[in-house]
Amino acid sequence: MLAPGPTVLSAHKISKVFWMKDAKHPLHVFSGVSLSLRAGEMLALVGPSGSGKSTLLRCLAGLEPVTEGHVVLLETNLARASRSTLAAMLRENVGLLLINPPLVPSLTALQNVELPGQLAGRSAWSNRELSMRSLEELGAKDLAKKTPEQLTPPQAAKISLARLLTQHPKIVFADEPTGRLSTADSKLVLKSLLKLSAAGAAIVLATHDLHLASQADRVITVVDGSLGATLERPSAEEILAALDQTAYGDDE
Ligand code: ADP
Ligand code: MG
To answer: What does pTM read for this prediction?
Structure first.
């Protein structure tokens, strides 16, 4: 085991409230959530649909503001950071695997994979080499010249994964990364996440996939907007048992 790395993410009593138009009451998605994560650690948030996993993940990643409390991501207090600091941090050090991967429609799949390296100033030649290797690793070389609109959702997920591999992020936020994928593609996702983790990246997952969650160093159950049990390296069965105890169970 490597010595624990520096803390890369901490949430301090964060809450999120949505004020919906026409609704009588505000929606309290989660409240009083505190957690922290070190470099190289993998954390999985599991819980029923609607429990607030995705919203929590977006708040931790700086994609959405919190209502109360604060998040420190890569030594930056997200509430106090300027837009440009935040944008640079997200671009360079934060990797995202989202359900609808934000691929640039005017670029080919390969150019999308090359984007982080290009923005980081990597030489065009080594960037192409690295990007092609990532595509090859994922069995997606034949997608290189396609445009995002020609890709099926699982193919787009692969391109987003290849892009993540070339980015070398310090922290990855992945929302249901195996959600719509076949078993074979899910294995590729897991392999890629483990590779990034072995390279020192911290990983935060929101997932229904108990097999994937069981690969995490730490699993936290999210129930109705608060954190339930924290489990260290649990098996899939142990996660299921912890979810069952909440009387909600897994909904898929
Ligand atoms: P999960 O990922 O666990 O399924 P979500 O974080 O997606 O949960 O949703 C938690 C709750 O927050 C749900 O009731 C959802 O409808 C609500 N919610 C999520 N995003 C928004 C939004 N942008 N505006 C209003 N309500 C939202
Ligand atoms: Mg979700």
So the answer is: 0.93
